[in-house]
């Protein structure tokens, strides 16, 4: 049986960064590589985040593309170049995602 694991926004800024919380670190140990497909989504913003609609409602700069806060948290970063993974950047609410 084929399985797919979808990992949503498990990024440094949501675990131990700008919008992180201590309990999020516990999730990491539950992900195991067994050759199944894994889809990672990334909350993705640009430097002008605070000027966007979302930034005006949540004025905490986070998950800026090409920063440490945008990266996958901890051990999951080992999956970046794995042939069984798909990585999707998604922007503010209502914005279409793009594959990276």
Walkthrough of the structure:
By secondary structure, the chain is mainly beta. The chain has 2 helices and 4 strands. The protein has helices spanning 12-15, 53-57, and strands spanning 4-8, 37-43, 85-90, 98-99. It has a 4-stranded mixed beta sheet with strand order 1-2-3-4, with no helix packed on it. α2 links the parallel β2 (37-43) and β3. The protein starts with a strand and ends with a strand.
**What does the average pLDDT come to?**
84
- Secondary-structure-based class equals mainly beta
* Secondary-structure element order, N to C: EHEHEE
What oligomeric arrangement do these chains adopt?
Answer: single chain
Silhouette: globular
Low-confidence stretches: none
Largest sheet at a glance?
4 strands, mixed
The first-to-last residue Cα distance is 27 Å
Layout of strands and helices, then pairs:
Blueprint (H helix, E strand, L loop, with lengths): L3 E5 L3 H4 L21 E7 L9 H5 L27 E6 L7 E2 L1
Parallel strand pairs: 1-2, 2-3
Antiparallel strand pairs: 3-4
Summarize the structure.
By secondary structure, the protein is mainly beta. It is built from two helices and four strands; from the N terminus they run E-H-E-H-E-E.
Main attributes of the structure:
mainly beta; 100 residues; 4-stranded mixed beta sheet; single chain
């Amino acid at each position: 049986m084929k399985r797919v694991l979808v990992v949503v926004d498990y990024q440094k800024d949501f675990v131990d960064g700008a919008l992180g919380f201590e309990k999020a670190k516990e999730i990491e140990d539950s992900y195991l590589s067994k050759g199944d497909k894994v889809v990672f989504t990334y909350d993705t913003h640009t430097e002008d985040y605070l000027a966007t609609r979302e930034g005006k409602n949540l004025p905490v700069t986070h998950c800026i593309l090409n920063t440490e806060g945008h990266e996958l948290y901890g051990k999951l970063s080992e999956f970046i170049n794995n042939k069984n993974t798909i990585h999707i950047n998604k922007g503010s609410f209502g914005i279409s995602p793009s594959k990276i």
